[in-house]
Amino acid sequence: DAGITQSPRHKVTETGTPVTLRCHQTENHRYMYWYRQDPGHGLRLIHYSYGVKDTDKGEVSDGYSVSRSKTEDFLLTLESATSSQTSVYFCAISESPRPKAHEQYFGPGTRLTVT
Amino acid sequence: GQNIDQPTEMTATEGAIVQINCTYQTSGFNGLFWYQQHAGEAPTFLSYNVLDGLEEKGRFSSFLSRSKGYSYLLLKELQMKDSASYLCAVFTGTASKLTFGTGTRLQVTL
Predict the structure, then answer these.
(1) What's the CA gap between A101 and B33, in Å, rounded?
(2) CB B96 to CB A100 under 8 A?
(3) Is residue B80 classed as helix, strand or coil in its secondary structure?
(4) Do the beta carbons of residue B23 and residue A85 sit within 8 Å?
(5) How far apart are CA B88 and CA B24, in angstroms?
(6) What is the structure's pLDDT at A85?
(7) Hey, which of A1, A7, B63, B99 has its CA 20 to 30 A from B36?
(8) Which of A66, A62, A71, A65 is CA-nearest to residue A31?
(9) Distance CA B63, CA B52 (A)
C-alpha cells in the first residue's frame, strides 16, 4: 500500500471555526489531491498540487484553501467551516500525469462534521 | 464539462457474473479508471483502459469503447467480499485530474 496518512481521521467542529486537514505521504509523489465524497455526488476534486508551492483549483474549491510547502505534506484549510462542508475528505497522490503511470492512491479519509 | 453515468445499485448472487456499465461525455478524454471502495474505506485502483477493448485482471475485466463513450467492469465468480461500491473515473490528461461518477453499490447475496 502507498504510504499516505491523513489527520485527523475524525473531527467535529462548530460552524464558523477554522479547520485544517493534513495529508502526509512517504512515496515522494509529485501530485497530490484533495477530494470530498458525499452521497449522490461521488468524489469531487477540491484542489490539487503538481509540486511544492504549485496548486490549482478543482471543481468545488469555494470555501477551501490549500498549501504545500514540502513534497510530503498537503494541507487543506476550511477558513470558516459551514454545515455544507460536512463530508468525508480523501487525499490522493500520483506519481505522474501520464496515463497508466499515475494511478491515484488514496489516503484513509477524514470524516468531518460541522455542527 | 464532464458527465459520467453509472447505475446507483446492483445486486448479484455469489458465484455469478455481473457487469457494471459506465457511460461518459467528457472533453480531453485520456483514459478511464475503475476503483473499488468498501464501505468506510478508501477507494482502491482496479483497472485502467486507454485503448478500445478488454483488459483482464484475474476475476475482473474492464472494457472500453471510446467511440461510444462506454465502459463496463465485469466481475466473475462473485464473492461476498466483492460487495462494495465501484467507481468509474475519467482521466482528462490535465495534471492527472480524474472526474468520478457517483459510483455503483454492488451487493452480493447468497
Answers:
(1) 12
(2) no
(3) helix
(4) no
(5) 9
(6) 98
(7) A7
(8) A71
(9) 7
Cell digits for A45?
A: 476534486
A30 at B interface, C-beta within 8 A? no
**Contact, B109 vs B45, CB < 8 A?**
no
Nearest CB neighbour to B43, from listed A58, A102, A106: A106
Residue indicated by cell numbers 503538481 = A50
- A109 contacts: CB under 8 Å, gap ≥ 6: A6, A9, A37, A88, A89, A90, B41, B42
User: How do residues A66-102 score in pLDDT, each as one tens digit?
Assistant: 999 999 999 999 999 999 999 999 999 988 766 565 6
| Residue B61 pLDDT > 60 | yes
Nearest CB among B31, B42, B99 relative to A108 is that of B42
Chosen for mutation from A102, A105, A110 (greatest number of chain B CBs closer than 10 Å) is A102
Q: Which three cell numbers stand for residue A20?
A: 485544517
Distance of alpha carbon A61 from the chain centroid: 11
Nearest CA distance, A28 vs chain B (angstrom): 16
Distance of CA B33 to the CA centre of its chain: 7
Q: What is the reported pLDDT for B26? A: 82
Q: Under DSSP, is residue A83 helix (H, G, I), strand (E, B) or coil?
A: helix
